[in-house]
Write a structure and sequence with these properties.
With 311 residues, the protein is of the alpha/beta class. It contains eleven helices and nine strands. The chain is 35% helix and 18% strand.
């Protein structure tokens, strides 16, 4: 399916106050004016398959685009689509490297990359892109804030959707890692010990019902870093809100809390790149999860990306 078939929807007019996403998103061509949002897809089930999860996340990027396309914009902005990197024949690591190269080029061009997964193995590619870019100054501290029911710090010898942040932390001593929404029943005591060994900060889903506690957690983390990568695993949300994921949450973190965290990080001035992972359209028959993910992407971008320059 080509981009024109995905970015479609209702048209109320072409005046600035009538625009929807599908009317402003154009194919990305390098060399344009910096400061735009650029969507990148990462179609991969390989990490989920290796982690013995339920496959289907490879269809996530286009489902998320379709859900975002008809949403109305609060104001005009510049947005582009750089296409989708597809993992084939089990070549996950190759796909992650290709995603990293794409994200690096976008960051170096002054754009705001928004990556749509795919399983949470997307995180390695997003990290490689930011780590290799000029946005990351030598000696700077990179923060990864993960909204997730899982630590994804598994010690498995083969990389999967359960290992990305262990891989990153083992490779880069200047990364600080925080997880908001961790579900105790979904993470063994060994994984909590691994998080402690890496100095990871975490807030349990049980504790995310208190807005002041969530805000304090995020604020304290932002104070310790120079640059931020925000990654959202949709299984952080309650199963009633996000059933279309590999591992739906029995409890989860409410959508208003997740949205408030998105607002806090966009206001910080530290956010460089974000991704949204684990959307599985085959498990999402009414597109509820896709619409929720699109709402989060909409919120992040419209609050982070400036409108077009005044003529």
């Amino acid at each position: 399916m080509n981009s024109e078939e995905i970015w479609t929807g209702r048209v109320d007019g072409t005046d600035p106050e009538q625009l929807r996403w599908h009317q402003v998103v154009a194919p990305y061509v390098p060399g344009g004016e910096p400061g735009a949002c650029v969507f990148v897809g990462f179609a991969s089930d390989e990490g989920v398959r290796r982690n013995t999860g339920r496959p289907g996340a490879a269809q996530g990027p286009d489902a998320l685009r379709r859900a975002l396309a008809p949403m109305a914009l609060p104001a005009p902005l510049r947005a582009y689509d750089a296409g989708t990197i597809t993992v084939t024949d089990g070549r996950l690591e190759d796909g992650q490297r290709r995603l990293g190269t794409t994200v690096t080029a976008l960051l170096d061009a002054g754009e705001f990359p928004v990556v749509f997964g795919g399983g949470h193995e997307v995180a390695v590619g997003t990290y490689l892109g930011l780590a290799g870019s000029t946005r990351r100054a030598p000696g700077s501290v990179l923060g990864i804030l993960n909204l997730d029911a899982h630590f994804d710090l598994r010690p498995d010898p083969i990389a999967s959707s359960g290992t990305p942040f262990r891989q990153i932390l083992e490779a880069d001593a200047d990364v600080r890692y925080a997880v908001l929404g961790v579900s105790q029943p979904s993470n063994t005591a060994a994984l909590f010990a691994t998080a402690d060994r890496f100095g990871a900060r975490y807030l349990l889903d049980d504790d995310c019902a208190e807005p002041a506690r969530v805000d304090a957690f995020v604020t304290e983390f932002l104070a310790r870093i120079d640059l931020l990568y925000l990654t959202i695993d949709l299984d952080v949300l309650p199963a009633a809100v996000a059933p279309g994921v590999s591992a739906p949450a029995a409890f989860g973190v409410g959508l208003p809390v997740v949205q408030a965290v998105c607002d806090r990080v966009t206001a910080s001035g530290l956010l460089a790149v974000t991704d949204i992972a684990e959307l599985n359209p085959g498990l999402d028959p009414d597109a509820r999860t896709a619409r929720t993910a699109a709402r989060l992407a909409h919120r992040l971008v419209t609050r982070h990306v400036p409108g077009p320059p005044q003529k």
